[in-house]
Write a structure and sequence with these properties.
Elements: E1 10-15, H1 23-36, E2 40-44, E3 59-61, E4 89-92, E5 98-101, H2 104-113, E6 118-123, H3 125-136, E7 141-145, H4 161-182, E8 185-190, H5 197-205, E9 210-212, H6 220-232, E10 238-243, E11 255-260, E12 263-268, H7 271-283, E13 287-291, H8 303-321, E14 327-332, E15 335-340, H9 341-346, H10 356-363
Parallel strand pairs: 1-2, 1-6, 6-7, 7-14, 8-10, 8-13, 9-10
Antiparallel strand pairs: 2-3, 4-5, 11-12, 14-15
The chain binds 6-O-phosphono-beta-D-fructofuranose.
6-O-phosphono-beta-D-fructofuranose is lined by residues 18, 82, 124, 147-149, 191-193, 244, 267-268, 297.
């Protein structure tokens, strides 16, 4: 494997965690920029699984033909997973119980065995955490930040976020006419984990009447006040945009258990339904809840996300060429820059309840339920 002095001949790239629009644009940028330097590029499929699942097709050669015409395509041509940490690989015990075991040494052996010199790992905090752990084991790695949640503090934006905001805004736009026709309250639940960026951006752009985010705990009474105030102004419908991590003052976030194969996972979700019921009970209005869910991760990246992805991809290749490893590229102001993986993982980014965007929303009469 490479250190800062040995020449690069062959690099690998992988995509981990939840997909986000723009992954394919990063892959294309990495491959084209690497080929220009005379390197070979291989894609590890399904996160780290391609080198651990005994599948000879898990490592694929990426040439310019393979990455032709993919800048605008959603998803990832390499596949992804949020269950493939080589340090905690999931497996079934003898009694059928779910457990994990450390396969990182095996992964590193396979990586070296294929003559790979460096890895470009595209992912959110989970995947960048794996990249850091591999880097500490001696793997030359450069990270690229991906998440629709936009919650990585070291980068002003992660690609995929603004496309998710476009999707949520489009949904809010469309819901206005049906809400108004039926004089209903429509509650739209958007993603974002513990941060309210998608809800805040799309709620503002899509003219929601109420935006509920984890950073500003709400009371249902204050949400009802807004709906009643609109009724008094002859506005007989309302749109509530709620982040999946939003929660009442002193109350927990709402979760649900989902199936991942035979395994069960606890995921955020269900707050929209709960709020719709509470609003119907308190106001007597007809309510409907809609969860946008994985729609927000799908589709074609918008122009900004394509550009950011392409910039991140070429910047990551620059880092590899410079022998600058154990880092992740990010957007700081107008510039794409590398920071250490430790710095990249140090902090999450949350909406500032006293910040300019929240103040703008309040000036527009939008309620935060608080
Ligand atoms: O982190 C991206 C994200 O889409 C979150 O907004 C959401 O909570 C989570 O992933 C959903 O994960 P899954 O794809 O496992 O359902």
């Amino acid at each position: 494997m490479a250190d800062s002095s040995s020449p690069i001949r062959r690099i690998a790239i992988n995509t981990g965690g939840g997909d986000a629009p723009g992954l394919n644009a990063v892959i294309r940028a990495v491959v084209l920029a690497a080929l220009r330097r005379g390197w070979e590029v291989y894609g590890i499929e399904r996160g780290y699984g391609g080198l651990l699942e005994g599948d000879q097709n898990g490592l694929v050669r990426l040439d310019d033909d393979r990455v032709r015409g993919i800048t605008h395509e959603g998803g990832t041509i390499l596949g992804t997973t949020n269950r493939g940490n080589p340090f905690a690989w999931p497996e079934r015990g003898e009694e059928g119980e779910q457990r994990t075991h450390d396969r990182s040494a095996e992964f590193l052996r396979a990586f070296r065995g294929h003559g790979l010199d460096a890895l470009i790992a595209i992912g959110g905090d989970g995947s960048l955490g794996i990249a850091r752990d591999l880097s500490e084991c001696g793997l030359p790695v450069v990270g690229v930040p991906k998440t629709i949640d936009n919650d990585l503090a070291y980068t002003d934006l992660s690609f995929g976020f603004l496309t998710a905001v476009d999707t949520a805004t489009d949904a809010l736009d469309k819901l206005h006419s049906t809400a108004e026709s039926h004089q209903r309250v429509m509650v739209v639940e958007v993603m974002g984990r513990h941060s309210g960026w998608i809800a805040l951006y799309s709620g503002l752009a899509g003219t929601a009447d109420v935006i509920l985010i984890p950073e500003i705990p709400y009371t249902i009474e204050r949400v009802c006040e807004k709906i009643r105030a609109r009724e008094a102004q002859d506005r007989h419908f309302s749109i509530v945009c709620v982040a999946e991590g939003a929660h009442p003052v002193g109350g927990p976030m709402v979760t649900k258990t989902v199936r991942a194969g035979r395994e069960e996972q606890v995921r955020l979700g269900g707050i929209g339904e709960r709020i719709a019921i509470e609003l119907a009970d308190a106001t007597g209005k007809e309510t409907r809840a809609l969860t946008l869910g994985h729609l927000q991760r799908g589709g074609s990246p918008n122009a900004y996300d394509r550009l950011l992805s392409l910039r991140f991809g070429t910047a990551a290749v620059d880092c590899v060429a410079a022998g600058h490893f154990g880092c992740a590229v990010g957007l700081v102001g107008d510039h794409v820059k590398p920071v250490t993986l430790d710095e990249a993982l140090r902090e999450r980014k949350f909406v500032d309840p006293d910040g300019e965007l929240v103040a703008t929303a309040r000036d527009l009469g939008i309620s935060f339920g608080a």
